[in-house]
Amino acid sequence: MLFSHDTEHALGTAVDLVNTGPAVGGAEHLPDLPALQAFVDRNDVSDVCDLDAGDLEAALRLRDRFHDVFRTPEDTQATVRRVNAVIGEARTAPHLTDHDDYDWHVHFFAPGSRLAEHLAAECGIALAYVVAAGELDRLRVCEAPDCGRVLVDLSRNRCRRYCDSRTCGNRMHVAAYRARQRESAAR
After folding, report:
1. Number of domains in the chain
2. pLDDT tens-digit readout, 13-71
3. Residue 32 CA: distances (Å) to CA of 29, 52, 59, 95, 144
4. Measured on CA atoms in the order 49, 55, 61, 67, is the torsion positive or negative?
5. CA-CA distance, 39 to 42, in Å (whole number)?
6. Cβ distance 108 to 92 under 8 Å?
7. 121 is in which domain, residue-wise?
8. Fewer CB near the terminus (10 Å): N or C of the chain?
9. Short-list 78, 58, 56, CA closest to 139
10. CATH number of residue 135's parent domain
11. How far apart are CA 127 and CA 187, in angstroms?
12. Of 112, 106, 110, which Cα lies nearest the Cα of 5?
């Protein structure tokens, strides 16, 4: 494991948040509070207060800011500025916890934080760890031409190119196979 379980979980949450956007596939996947609650449940975001319209608006703004980080990971200075801005605006209060049968781990959000503040602290710190480890090249946009989803490549040999091997990866491999077949038949 390259990063701690908590960091990898927060990175996955950031990816899921970014991939709910209309810039990825054209459809808005966080249109309302039930969708936001489904996002919270799907990502096991702990200690979340009752969600309201303000939480949805703030989460959508944060999503755009995280998307900017994934779009230009090769620009380290810009990424550092973006990540520092997100973390700097979050109310943080690092504390140890062992909730829900998980061993001791650190939460960075302040108790009682609203959802976006919670995500800004947890996911922002996770992205900061990626920067500090010199691993920004692991933040990627799917290489399938018709996809804009983002991913974090946590593979040992940094070979992950597609957001999902069953969808984009399979489509691209089939297309490459068919192209080779056409080329072979044309000879």
Report:
1. 1
2. 999 999 999 876 788 999 999 999 999 999 999 888 899 999 999 999 999 999 999 99
3. 9, 10, 11, 31, 29
4. positive
5. 5
6. yes
7. 5-186
8. C
9. 78
10. 1.10.3300.10
11. 49
12. 106
